[in-house]
Write a structure and sequence with these properties.
The chain is mainly alpha-helical and about 150 residues long.
Length: about 150
């Protein structure tokens, strides 16, 4: 089926409603799992990124902001909260002492591993009899492509 035909099959308002419902559902699902860790979705996304870069020495605030396509002030505020909760800390870059790298603390690493495991397991349970592995992989592939579209 052509993209044009697929687009014509669904009214734009129906797509908007579906997207909104999926977003609301997945946010509520994720937030329920994050609640015991005193994290919201935005904090989890930042902690997850920091955790993924900790073994490589950490990540700069500007790089976090670029990945998430937000202002550094937004990332700085989230990192402040994560620092208070003792999930992240900063280190100096060994090649440039002026650069501060964000790293996960032991508490942050433990939480990130547990959250990732739980989210994967609960997502699989939720979707097990509803969506095939191929459908889920296609869904993620399409979402990643849409997320990379140039902003107008």
């Amino acid at each position: 089926m052509s993209l044009e035909r697929a687009i014509k099959k669904l009214n734009s308002y129906e797509l908007g409603i579906t997207h909104t419902l999926v977003t609301r559902y997945t946010n509520n699902f994720r937030n329920r799992i994050l609640r015991p860790y005193d994290l919201n979705s935005a904090e989890w996304f930042v902690l997850g990124l920091v955790y993924s870069k900790t073994s490589k020495g950490g990540i700069r605030v500007t790089d976090l902001a670029a990945i998430l396509d937000v202002k550094t002030t937004y990332i700085t505020a989230i990192l402040g909260t994560l620092r208070i909760k003792q999930y992240v800390d900063t280190n100096s870059d060994s090649s440039d002492a002026r650069v501060r790298l964000i790293v996960a603390t032991n508490k942050g690493e433990t939480a990130a591993k547990q959250i990732e495991t739980t989210l994967r397991k609960e997502t699989e349970k939720l979707l097990r009899n509803q969506v095939s592995g191929e459908e889920y992989a296609s869904y993620l592939k399409v979402m990643r492509k849409i997320a990379q579209l140039p902003q107008s």
